[in-house]
Write a sequence for this structure.
C-alpha cells in the first residue's frame, strides 16, 4: 500500500520540483535600453541544427552591465538570442552563455567598448554538440562587428558546469 501511495505521489513531487522560479525581478535589476544619445546594438547568435537529432547552437546574453536582460515570464534566456539590445557608447560588461539542447556552459563575463552606430553580435566556436561523442568541453565566445565580421574582443573560454554529484539511495528488500 505504501508503494502505491508513493508511486501515485511521485508525479506531483516531480512536477513541483521542476517548476521554474518565475518571480519577477525589481525594475532596477532589469536592463533598460538607453533613451537617447549615441548608441550601438548587440545581439546573440544561433547556428541552426545540422541534423534532426540535435538542437540549435545558441550563444546568448544574460545580463548587460549587471542588469538582467528582459524576457517573458516563462521564457529561457537562451530564447532571447535574437533580441537586439541598444547600448550606450562606451565600456560594457555582459554575462553570456552557450546552449545546445540539454548541453550548456557556465555563464561567463565579456567586456568591450561600444562605438557609435555600430552593430555587434556574439560569436562562438565549440566542441559541444558538434559530433557524436564530442568532448563537450568548451565554448569560445567573442564579440564581433556585424558589418565587418571582425572580432572586437578577445576570446573568452567557458566550460560546462561540473557533472552533477552521483546520488545513491539504499534499496531495502524485505521478505516480510
Amino acid at each position: 500500500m505504501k508503494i502505491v501511495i508513493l508511486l501515485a505521489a511521485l508525479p506531483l513531487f516531480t512536477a513541483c520540483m521542476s517548476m521554474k522560479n518565475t518571480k519577477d525581478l525589481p525594475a532596477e535589476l532589469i536592463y533598460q535600453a538607453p533613451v537617447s544619445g549615441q548608441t550601438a546594438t548587440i545581439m546573440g547568435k544561433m547556428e541552426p541544427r545540422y541534423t534532426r537529432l540535435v538542437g540549435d547552437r545558441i550563444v546568448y546574453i544574460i545580463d548587460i552591465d549587471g542588469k538582467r536582460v528582459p524576457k517573458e515570464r516563462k521564457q529561457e534566456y537562451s530564447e532571447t538570442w535574437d533580441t537586439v539590445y541598444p547600448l550606450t557608447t562606451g565600456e560594457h560588461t555582459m554575462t553570456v552563455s552557450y546552449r545546445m539542447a540539454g548541453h550548456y556552459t557556465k555563464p561567463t563575463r565579456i567586456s568591450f567598448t561600444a562605438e557609435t552606430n555600430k552593430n555587434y553580435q556574439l560569436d562562438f566556436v565549440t566542441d559541444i554538440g558538434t559530433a557524436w561523442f564530442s568532448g563537450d568541453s568548451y565554448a569560445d565566445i567573442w564579440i564581433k562587428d556585424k558589418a565587418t565580421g571582425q572580432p572586437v574582443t578577445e576570446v573568452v573560454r567557458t566550460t560546462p558546469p561540473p557533472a552533477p554529484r552521483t546520488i545513491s539511495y539504499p534499496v531495502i528488500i524485505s521478505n516480510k
